[in-house]
Amino acid sequence: MASKKTRRHDLIQQAVQEQGGVSVGALAEMFGVSMQTIRRDLDILCDGENLHRSHGRIELAEGRRNTPFDQRAGTNLLGKRAIASGAAALIPDGATLFISIGSTALSVARALHRRKELTVVTNNLSVAMALSEEISNRIIVPGGEIRLPDRDFVGEEVVEFFARYRADYAIFGTAGIGAEGELLEFHQAEVRATYRMWRNARTSILVIDRSKFGRLAPAVGGTITQIDHVICDRPPAEAFSHLVEQLGDRITFAEEAD
C-alpha cells in the first residue's frame, strides 16, 4: 500500500493539473498538514520538468501550462455529448435547476439550449452564459470573485448561496469516485456546495465519465448510491461493478443508449 506521503504527492500533482496552480496554504489546509510539510513535498515534486514553485504556489511548468478548464472541456467530447443529451432529456421546460461547476455540467447546459423558461441557479459562469442565450430563462448567480481560468465561483459564500434556494433538479459532477462510491472533491467547500445542491433539489443528477471511477481527491462528500440518477458515458472497470449493481436502473450509460 502506498504511504501517506506518496498518496499526498499524487493528489498534489492531480490538484495542480486540475487547477493550474495551488498555494502552499491551500494544500496544507487540504491535507491537514503543516505548511512546512507541504514545502518539503514541493522540494521533491518540483525537482523535474512538470511542476515549479512561484511565490508560495506550485504551478504547472510553462511548457505544460494550458487553461485547465478549457483543456478538460476539450477531452472525451463524444462521451460528454452523450451524457449531456441523456441529462437534458430529463429536464422539462419551466424547470428550476441547480447546475454545478465543471466541464460536464457545462455540456449539459449547452444541451438544454432548446428548453424554455428555465430558472437556473449556478456558480458556473460558463453555464450562466450558455443558458442566457434563451431570453425566457432566468439565471441566478452568486456574487463575489470569479475563480480564473475556470470561470466559476467557489467558497463558503457559494454554500450559503445554494442554501437560499430550492430546485426541481440538481445537475452536478464530481472530481472522483472512491472504491465504496464516495464522491470526492479537491476542496471541502466544493463538497459542501454540492451537498447543499442535491439536498435542496427534488431530484439529483450526477453526470460523470468512466474516468472518474477510482480517481482520487482528498475531500469526501456523500456516496454515489444516494443519487437519484447517475449518467455516465460507459460502464466503469470491473472493480466498480458492485456500485453499478446497487444503483440498478438509476444509472444510465449514455453511449450505449445512443
From TrEMBL:
Domain of life where this protein originates: Bacteria
Family annotation (InterPro entries): Carb_Metab_HTH_regulators, DeoR-like_C, DeoR_HTH, NagB/RpiA_transferase-like, Tscrpt_reg_HTH_DeoR_CS, WH-like_DNA-bd_sf, WH_DNA-bd_sf
SUPFAM superfamilies, alphabetized: NagB/RpiA/CoA transferase-like, Winged helix' DNA-binding domain
Xref: PROSITE patterns: HTH_DEOR_1 (PS00894), HTH_DEOR_2 (PS51000)
Gene3D superfamilies for this protein: 4-hydroxybutyrate coenzyme like domains, Winged helix-like DNA-binding domain superfamily/Winged helix DNA-binding domain
Domain HTH deoR-type: 5-60
Keywords annotated in UniProt: DNA-binding, Repressor, Transcription, Transcription regulation
Protein name: Transcriptional regulator, DeoR family
UniProt GO molecular function: DNA binding; DNA-binding transcription factor activity
